[in-house]
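Hmm, what's this shape?
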Amino acid sequence: MSLPGTFFMRWRVRLGYPLAVIALWFSRPSPRSVLLGGLVGLLGLWLRGCAAGYLHKQEMLTVGGPYAYTRNPLYLGSAVMALGAAVAMKSWISASLLLLYFAIFYSAVMRREETELRMRHGSVFEAYARAVPLFLPRLRPLKLPMASSAAFSFAQYKKNHEWQAALGFLLLLIALLLIWHFPKG
């Protein structure tokens, strides 16, 4: 039996590439928009990096660090990066494409992952889900006994390949500067 959201899990990255090409085509970047978007994107990268240093995929339910504020800090960081990309692209069309893609695909992906976590962790996940919001963070961290021993690990950050998000965002900013420097006709 296939879980709801399987299509979105499988195709989110594959469909992201042609979407990026279309968004870049409509972009009208300037050095200022790239700088401002890059600064917004750095905030998203920082959040993703913090989350990746706590996340132990398939090993345990992660509830410490940024996961004490939101159940999906990686995706929240990705949303902030998408907002940064939209600012850097300086195009309503590009921004709309990016934000619509994120809203459609990642809302389905988050729900699918929740179903998997419910199946794997049962009542522990249920208690966590009742206390911590799905996406937008709570103001104060959740205090759970199992979260108290959690600590950021740079080794875990590397194991989760989070450096790839930073590299991808840097390449996007470089591409936008090239688009600005070599305008289309």
Remarks:
- The radius of gyration is 18 Å.
- The chain has a mean pLDDT of 89.
- Residues 92-131 form the longest helix (40 residues).
